[in-house]
Design a protein that fits this description.
alpha+beta; four-stranded antiparallel beta sheet
């Protein structure tokens, strides 16, 4: 309840609706009341902004390359590959820990209807590049021997990425991602795109590598 100080046309102290009246240093003031719902909304907004920032840090190295247009098959969608990749990361790969962060094993760098890589792994070769290997599962579902290998290495510290759709194919079972002497911890993934680059497979996270 508010208290009128100098009659009906005077100043007031206390709460009236969404306004609080008060006196300070001889002056009369009013301010909007703080609402709990505003605080709840602001927390949700901050959390969403954090998720967007984390996602954008990961996808920025791919921007303008057209890589996601091939690695995230449209399958009738009208959005860009970059938007499809962003949506996949935002929806399934960001955790609160307590601030927003990427869970790299949950990140997809490719998505589609092709069968995924099986028994996939990655290691550093004698030249300081990343050697990927996998088992040939040609003939499983729509998997074909000429599906092209897709490789990605992301460096969280520098927020840089090295990526390639290789001439190596599903039947080859090995492929090399050239790093050009890059050093640090790299998160790695392997996937496939079809020979005509119109379809893709969900990528597989092949672990963290120290270079």
């Amino acid at each position: 309840m508010a208290r009128v100080i100098n009659g009906i046309n005077g100043a007031f102290t206390g709460k009236v609706g969404t306004v609080t009246g008060y006196t300070r240093n001889g002056g009369d003031f009013m301010r909007s009341r703080h609402r709990l719902t505003d605080n709840v909304k602001s927390k949700a907004r901050v959390a969403q902004q954090q998720k967007i920032t984390v996602c954008n840090e990961f996808t920025k190295p791919f921007s303008g390359s057209g890589f996601f247009n091939k690695s995230f098959a449209a399958n009738g969608a009208t959005s860009t590959g970059y938007n499809r990749a962003t949506s996949a990361i935002m929806n399934q790969a960001i955790i609160q820990n307590p601030a927003a962060a990427l869970s790299y094993p949950l990140v997809l760098v490719s998505r589609g209807m092709l069968p995924t890589a099986v028994y996939a792994s990655a290691l550093v070769d004698i030249d300081g590049n990343i050697a990927f290997s996998w088992a040939d599962n040609t003939g499983t579902g729509t998997a074909k021997k000429d599906d092209k290998v897709l490789m990605v290495a992301y460096f969280p510290e520098s927020k840089e990425a090295v990526y390639k759709i290789s001439e190596a194919t599903r039947k080859d079972c090995t492929a090399i991602l050239q790093l050009n002497s890059k050093k640090g911890i790299a998160e790695t993934w392997i996937g496939f795109v079809s020979a005509d680059e119109t379809n893709a497979a969900d990528s597989v996270h092949t672990g963290s590598i120290l270079l």
